[in-house]
Design goal:
The chain is mainly β and 237 residues long. The protein has one domain: Porin. Helix content is 14%, strand content 57%. The chain has one helix and twelve strands. It has one helix spanning 2-34, and strands at residues 48-65, 74-79, 81-93, 98-102, 105-117, 123-142, 149-165, 174-175, 178-191, 196-206, 211-212, 222-236. Strands 1, 2, 3, 4, 5, 6, 7, 9, 10 and 12 form a ten-stranded antiparallel β-sheet that branches. Strands 8-11 form a two-stranded antiparallel sheet. Strand 3 and strand 4 form a beta hairpin.
């Protein structure tokens, strides 16, 4: 499928970009550890900052089954699938310790449900592909700056809107085009002479049941679907 190939290419591009960034700035990181240079000294005195973000993500469904599932001969499993994100960033500094962050981004995600028949061992994968606009509003708590680095934690919520999804087929597991998730995570900020680089590990738990129930052989066994995602983001500010 064209959308699947594009998603795989973007994911591989994201992996390559992340590797290039890490290799490019490792020598600079070692150099600054040996010296006493303080980069971007007045950074925290500015009220607003802007930037962009690249990210890799791994998504899956958390599901709940119908009562009749216990009597069926089918086992359902949720598989983890990779994806890719890119977007823009706006930061409002509230005080020396807290900042508010808005980072709208396009996310290319896929999630897979695997159905295995106990009677004959046959396996069927139901793939749910979609392109989302994610709008996370997050609050980041920062530690004191130590030279050109510091740690942070974050918490907030995100709204997701589906822009495009796989063409609907018969017996497809369908999901709603809107979701809300609680997000939290941690990371590190590294200050360079011209910009700040911040890798971040973030966890996302959907709080809305996104299953569109149409009673077919696959969705009919499910009562609820919730999105779960782990993301590794690279922020440039």
């Amino acid at each position: 499928m064209v959308s699947f190939n594009i998603r795989n290419q973007l994911y591989l591009l994201g992996c390559q970009a992340a590797l290039i960034v890490l290799l490019a700035y490792a020598p600079a990181h070692a150099q600054h550890l040996r010296g006493n240079d303080i980069n971007l000294r007045n950074y925290d005195e500015q009220k607003l900052h802007y930037g962009f973000v690249l990210g890799l993500n791994f998504s899956r469904f958390h599901f709940q089954t119908q009562d009749r599932y216990a009597a069926s001969d089918t086992v359902v499993q949720a598989k983890i699938s990779p994806g890719f994100s890119l977007g823009l960033l706006g930061v409002l500094h509230l005080n020396p310790w807290w900042e508010m962050r808005l980072a709208p981004m396009a996310s290319f995600n896929e999630r897979t449900l695997e159905y295995t028949s106990l009677s004959d061992g046959n396996t069927v994968d139901k793939l749910v592909e979609a392109t989302y606009i994610d709008v996370p509003l997050l609050f980041r708590f920062k530690s004191s700056r130590r030279g050109n680095a510091r740690m942070f934690m974050l918490i907030g919520a995100s709204a997701s809107f589906a822009l495009a999804k796989k063409v609907e087929e018969e017996d497809l597991v369908r999901v709603k085009p809107f979701d809300v998730a609680i997000e939290f995570g941690f990371g590190m900020e590294k200050f360079f002479p011209m910009f700040k680089f911040a890798p971040e590990l973030r966890f996302s738990q959907g709080i809305m049941n996104v299953l569109e129930q149409d009673g077919n052989a696959y969705s009919g066994q499910l009562k609820a679907l919730y999105n779960q995602r782990v993301s590794l983001y690279f922020f440039f500010e």
